[in-house]
Amino acid sequence: MTEVLVDTSAWVEFLRGRESRPGDAVEALIVRDEVALTGPVIAELYGGVRGKRETKMVNNLVAIASYHDVVRADWEAAGAALNSLSRRGITVPKSDAVIAAVARRLRIPVLTIDAHFEHLGVKLYEI
After folding, report:
1. 17 Cβ partners below 8 Å, 6+ apart?
2. pLDDT tens across 77-113, in order?
3. How many helices (H) and strands (E) does the chain have?
């Protein structure tokens, strides 16, 4: 089984029922049991839910997805990436730097619609 770390931006497309390539890709990954999550994505998902229906959907998704902890090396790698990008005048969210660090450590792609992941040295899931 190949896992894909699904970023919050792609989850939003799926959860809001938008007919989009990212939303369709998330659905296909769920069907194939290839969805991976990490703490920052879970926190962002719960932070943005709208109402009981979405909360229930997120609860179900979190229960079925593979979960990967953020380890100390991920925090260090995220900090180094943020520092390097900052020196080049590029700003990305800290949470995305951590998500990218987890994906790099696990050697799995990230499904996202956020363009700044291209700066984070992570393999992107092709949709």
Report:
1. 23
2. 999 999 999 999 999 999 999 999 999 999 999 999 9
3. 6, 4
Query: What secondary structure does DSSP assign to 61-88, as a single string?
Result: HHHHSEEE---HHHHHHHHHHHHHHHHT
What is the token pair recorded at 84? 């390097």
Please list, in sequence order, all residues whose beta carbon lies within 8 angstroms of the beta carbon of residue 74, skipping any fewer than 6 positions away: 98, 101, 102, 105
Report d(CA 28, CA 49) in Å as an integer: 22
Tens-digit pLDDT profile for residues 40-69: 999 999 999 989 998 999 999 999 999 999
Task: List all residues 6 or more positions away from 98 whose beta carbon is below 8 Å from its beta carbon.
Answer: 38, 40, 70, 74, 75, 78
What size, in residues, is the chain? 127
**Tokens of residue 64, six digits:** 């079925």
Architecture of domain 4-120: 3-Layer(aba) Sandwich (3.40)
Instruction: Using DSSP, state whether 18 is helix, strand or coil.
Output: coil
| pTM to 2 decimal places | 0.93
